[in-house]
Input
Amino acid sequence: MSSLLVTGSIGIDTVESPAGKVEDALGGSSVYFAYAASFFTPVRLVGVVGDDCPEAFLAPLAENERIDLAGLEVRPGSKTFRWHGRYHEDVNERDTVAVELNVLAEVGPKIPDAFLDSEYVFLANTHPDLQMELLGQLGKPKLVVADTMDLWIRTEREKLAKLMERIDGLVLNDSEARMLTGKPNVIDAGHRIAQLVRRFVVVKKGEHGGVLFMDGKAYPLPGYPAALVVDPTGAGDTFAGAMMGCLAAGDAADAAALRRAIAYGTITASIELEDFSLKALQATTREAIDDRLAEFRGIVSF
Amino acid sequence: MSSLLVTGSIGIDTVESPAGKVEDALGGSSVYFAYAASFFTPVRLVGVVGDDCPEAFLAPLAENERIDLAGLEVRPGSKTFRWHGRYHEDVNERDTVAVELNVLAEVGPKIPDAFLDSEYVFLANTHPDLQMELLGQLGKPKLVVADTMDLWIRTEREKLAKLMERIDGLVLNDSEARMLTGKPNVIDAGHRIAQLVRRFVVVKKGEHGGVLFMDGKAYPLPGYPAALVVDPTGAGDTFAGAMMGCLAAGDAADAAALRRAIAYGTITASIELEDFSLKALQATTREAIDDRLAEFRGIVSF
Output
């Protein structure tokens, strides 16, 4: 079992979906990632909140013995990142009602000395400069994977390209893969992006699953057939957390290990979206995840 | 091995895609279906063309010993169905430049006496009244599967509902499944439609593969990761043809047989879209299909 570190956002989320609404709920990429990863391996979280964030708010993280919060900075005088989203009747569509970057617009966090030897590293989506700076703080990780978003593809293409040369794997969604390459065919786009990073790309397609691109090959996996989606917020970070947790736990990232890890990511995300915020992850177990993985393997085989 | 019959259109297609253009090429649902099915089992084709259709035009069908054209009617004084489509740079998008129903707007074909004992039947997309009328001509088939389209869902909902009560399986695409049920979640929609037919539904999702709904369960399969799509015309009918051919060849339609047949459908369609009209199907072999199926099984497993 190898050490796993995640850097990313911690947020106060308000989410409206056809299934209901939650206000001021715990969210953010590193939060979903760490909680999902913790089913597989201990995980080190690096992120910043403001002093407006009540202690009880972070309880789901603090109470999870597998999440090390030594890299959680509570910054005096700053305000925590806030996001308010509204999903449509078709939950594949959403509007951002409001977003306050707050502390995310300030200087990034410092990775604690005790975390500098981390072997598996996930740089959740943020400005590529900050991702590069965080990577620079670390020693010699075995595997570095990053997420990105359309905003940086549009506005920071060169910096993103430089980051990509330094990372082993990139996780992004299908529209981002098309945008990054200008290629409308997602498979074509994925193969091209795989040439720009050290080892592999995972293109996420939401309800349609995802595709791993590695060594000139494409490995597709469908989505888990979920008839009810309460809140898709965090599904991508949950996917990445379970995937990286699975890789770190097995200390391997060859194609076979990645495919198994991606299946775990798909399944853990399919559980996460069954309720708001972290509720469904808090209510599940590793055994329930394993059971659904076995079911998934059964229904996908032919 | 059981007998397989298809009723559907035969068309003169003009297709423009980013990869080029073909004019006055052989197309139509029953044509793609029959050619794909012929890799698995003999197939009986029922359809009508006008007397404007040169004999050489139908050569790919006539030269295929596994396609029985006894149900092909050449109607004097009528004109053959014509379709002209233009695919976008993203070939998932297309415009219909022109369509002439011609003989398809006239009275439907008569199924020859020698075909009335057909055991496996596919009613390709057409007006549900005509699908019902064709079904009424037949004896007691073992398995009847139909395709439909958004037009009939919008304009002939009641007739389509009556047809659905009479058929074992329905094949439709994801946007049609959503339209038919008013449910934005495709999995939810698929489960509901499965209640309206006798046995099963296959929801096709183009590049994202498809999902089988049967006995309250959903079986997803991803698309084959095709980096180059020359012409998607006929991919859905090729999928259905290979699927039905596979079922008829094995004379079974339980969940395991359907899942294998759907995988063959996916693979055969992935070959078909590599060239215009029937070219890629004409250039391939059952061995090449089996090889790609084995490769597909390998890349999907985890």
Remarks:
- The interface with chain B takes residues 88-92, 184-188, 191, 205, 207-209, 211, 217-229, 259-260, 262-263, 297, 299-302 of chain A (CB under 8 Å).
- The mean pLDDT of chain A is 96.
- Residues 80 and 174 of chain A are 30 Å apart (CA to CA).
- The longest strand of chain A covers residues 67-75.
